[in-house]
């Protein structure tokens, strides 16, 4: 996980788990990744599920993922092929659900303010820096153990590979 290029989907502040993954599906399709992906962000951006490409990133504003603790709000983005969510700030439970499920989350308010929807960015995990439009945006690096959990695909695969 060093330098990677990604297309951006930009959203605003206070995007909650009900619009990331609609609550009406919580107990009906919770285990089918393809079906989870079909409903990702449908109440916020109906075009997302049909147009997102593997490796795309979401950039959100403040308090991304507030609301309920439903894991489907993370799993639907993973199933959609989203590489990372970058935001000004995260709701705590969403942040930890993302790490535990293997979704990279990066806090970078300066980038969230500056970025345009549809832009291309380069994420440099080694230097904890995102490059966009000739500028570099530093972010707090994830602690080593959290990077390992994300790289393993989540907490369960991480623990299964331990001796």
Written account of the structure:
The protein is of the alpha/beta class. The chain has one domain: Aconitase, domain 4 (Alpha-Beta Barrel). It is built from 8 helices and 7 strands, in the order βαααβαβαβαβββαα. A 7-stranded mixed beta sheet has the order 4-3-2-1-5-6-7. Helix 4 crosses helix 5 and helix 5 crosses helix 7. The chain is globular, with a radius of gyration of 15 Å.
Topology:
Layout lengths: L2 E8 L6 H4 L12 H6 L9 H4 L5 E4 L11 H8 L4 E4 L4 H10 L2 E4 L1 H6 L5 E5 L4 E4 L2 E4 L5 H9 L2 H6 L3
Parallel strand pairs: 1-2, 2-3, 3-4
Antiparallel strand pairs: 1-5, 5-6, 6-7
Helix pairs in contact: 4-5, 5-7
CATH architectural name: Alpha-Beta Barrel
Assign the CATH class. Alpha Beta
CATH superfamily placement? Aconitase, domain 4
What Rg, in angstroms, do the CA atoms define? 15 Å
> What count of domains describes the coordinates?
1
Specify the number of helices: 8
- Provide the CATH topology: Aconitase, domain 4
| Strand order within the widest beta sheet | 4-3-2-1-5-6-7
Number of E strands: 7
DSSP strand content: 15-25%
Uncertain runs with pLDDT below 50, 5 residues or more?
none
pLDDT averaged over residues: 95
Shape summary:
globular
Instruction: Give the % helix.
Output: 25-40%
Largest sheet: 7 strands, mixed
How far the N terminus sits from the C terminus, by CA atoms, comes to: 23 Å
Structural class of the helix and strand makeup? alpha/beta
State the order of secondary-structure elements, H for helix, E for strand: EHHHEHEHEHEEEHH
């Amino acid at each position: 996980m060093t330098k990677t290029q990604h297309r951006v989907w930009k959203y605003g502040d206070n995007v909650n788990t009900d619009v990331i993954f609609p609550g009406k599906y919580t107990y009906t399709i919770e285990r089918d990744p393809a079906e989870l992906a079909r409903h990702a962000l449908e109440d916020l951006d109906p075009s997302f599920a049909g147009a997102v490409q593997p490796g795309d990133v979401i950039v959100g504003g403040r308090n991304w993922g507030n609301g309920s603790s439903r894991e489907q709000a993370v799993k639907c983005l993973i199933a959609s092929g989203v590489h990372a969510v970058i935001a000004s700030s995260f709701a705590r439970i969403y942040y930890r659900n993302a790490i535990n499920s293997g979704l990279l989350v990066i806090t970078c308010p300066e980038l969230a303010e500056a970025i345009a929807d549809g832009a291309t960015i380069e994420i440099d995990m080694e230097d904890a820096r995102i490059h966009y439009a000739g500028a570099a945006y530093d972010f707090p690096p994830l602690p080593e153990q959290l990077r390992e959990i994300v790289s393993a695909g989540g907490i369960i695969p991480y623990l299964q590979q331990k001796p």
